[in-house]
Amino acid sequence: AQKVTQAQTEISVVEKEDVTLDCVYETRDTTYYLFWYKQPPSGELVFLIRRNSFDEQNEISGRYSWNFQKSTSSFNFTITASQVVDSAVYFCALIRTSGTYKYIFGTGTRLKVLA
Amino acid sequence: DSGVTQTPKHLITATGQRVTLRCSPRSGDLSVYWYQQSLDQGLQFLIQYYNGEERAKGNILERFSAQQFPDLHSELNLSSLELGDSALYFCASSEGISNYGYTFGSGTRLTVV
Fold first, then answer.
1. pLDDT tops 80 at residue B1
2. Contact B79, B63 (CB under 8 A)
3. How many contacts does A have with B, using Cβ atoms within 8 A?
């Protein structure tokens, strides 16, 4: 069975601090995709990144970076120099490449960035 | 704007009632997915349609049903509503049957009172 665990329920940081959101996944599949989504207070789901299981290269996009480690089944997300606008719930998710192409979401991490 | 349109944005209704949520997929997308986000269950996959046909079913209650019409828009029908059905319902779309990742709409917030 597939599972995504986001152990951090809520994190509070002060603006300009760096913060890392953890994501650990379980799957027996050899190929799969991992995602991060942001859900701001307005409620929509905003796509941040997709990574396939064969690509362990870390990625940086502005203040955002992602660290994918297949050996530890982790796909962590770091925000550098956090800003108040980063306050949101962040979801990590996995999609299989066979069977039902549904997202398996983690329970989310609520990030509060204080001014 | 993601290109996936959901209406209405908010809906308040009483227990026992029936509602219909509507979704227009992104232009060119043939697959439509429905998800429910509730406080106790998190984000859960409900059902997928591809080009008018049901492709996959998730944790969808028997009181809920969906369909995809020839113009590719989809409707999610929720009947005999209970307080626990209060949730944010998301629609998403993708081009094919098995796209790895798709675009979400902004959701319909359903409140059952």
1. no
2. yes
3. 53
Strand A74-79 relative to strand A19-21, pairing: antiparallel
Strand ranges for A28-84 from DSSP E = 32-39, 46-52, 59-61, 64-69, 74-79
pLDDT in tens, A8-54: 999 999 999 999 999 999 999 888 999 999 999 988 999 899 998 99
Separation between Cα atoms, residue B104 and residue B109, nearest integer Å = 14
Task: Say if CB B105 and CB B1 are below 8 A apart.
Answer: no
DSSP-assigned beta bridge partners for residue A12: A112
Cβ neighbour number for residue B15 with a 10 Å cutoff: 12
- C-alpha B36/C-alpha A10 separation (Å) is 21
Which is nearest to A30 in space by CA: A68, A67, A59, A73?
A73
Q: In chain A, what's the furthest Cα-to-Cα distance?
A: 45
C-alpha dihedral sign at A88, A91, A92, A95: negative
Indicate yes or no: CB of A103 within 8 angstroms of CB of B43.
Answer: yes
pLDDT at B6 over 70: yes
How far apart are the CA of A26 and the nearest CA of chain B, in angstroms? 17
Q: Reduced to 3 states, what is the DSSP secondary structure of residue A71?
A: helix
Residues on chain B touching A97 (C-beta within 8 angstroms): 98, 100
Strands B31-38 and A103-105: unpaired
